[in-house]
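Explain this one:

_____
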Amino acid sequence: MNKLDKSYQFGWFDWLCLAYPPGWLILFNRHWQHYKPDPDGWNWLEYGLFLIPGGFYLAWLLRWLRLGCRSPHAQFTQPDPHYQQIFQQEILTPIAQRYFRAELLAIENLPDSAPAIVVLNHAGMCFPWDFLCLGVLLNQQKGWFVQSVAHPIFFDHPWLVWWLPRGWAHVMGGIRAERHSFEAAVHQAIAQPTALLYAPESWRGLAKGWSDRHQLETFDPSFIRLSLREQVPILPVACLGSEFLHPWTFNSRKLAHWLKMPLLPVSPLLLVFLLFPSMGIWAMRTRLRYRLQPIERPWMNASENRESVRSTYQQAERLRSQLQKEIDRERRNEG
């Protein structure tokens, strides 16, 4: 029987991992190892060390020595819609529903079918739970295969490849936030209907920190150009609650540059993270709400030179302003 036919069964240790923040990383890796051969992955002794202060560093040293003083090898480099579906059902859905209480609002704005470029504001300065939870909800509503445009750091940064299995981002449908990769993904989404999740603020959205958490940064207009060229509709989404995934943070630009990272969040939680580095994929409990906006079809605009630099920037700014007003309206309603 194929391993993908054997569902992952939660035991007492898995429930402990779900309840104990340093254990989330164990749960992700154990699920992967159940379905995918991973001789370079973590073992039971190393998992146990995750759960004690400072134990991750010893676990990393043991694994590094066990692998012959090298980094883990990549076993998979292609998207796997089957595994993504299983991972969403068995791991992400309980977290999205019970922990982040994620919900879609104004679902009447959902198009009947993919492809679509789903653009949303991106915040939290942590693991992209706003993206993952939206992917779960879209899959539940429409059964879509969802791919996320992500910074290259998630694919091959020399530090992050030790947290999750090398190739995890590829298997989960991740797309490098590079022009040629994004263009290829949009073109492929037409042949195999796919929802592409894209943050037009890029890393500027994450790096703005706690003080500007409700203010949207300038939108990169590349998604407008691709929508025009390939005639793929845009589904704007206003995400509320993602700013509380990692609250009270600011971006340390000097440390980020020294560590060769696009940003480095500093907050009162930093000391806890230094003691338990496996908490890198954990986030504070919040309520993630996604208010869908009416679908956009920029190519139906009859204006001339609609693919010009000026026109695409204007359209991106109009969409940014629209989402900003929606976020401000939701905040007023909460108050």
Remarks:
- The chain has a mean pLDDT of 89.
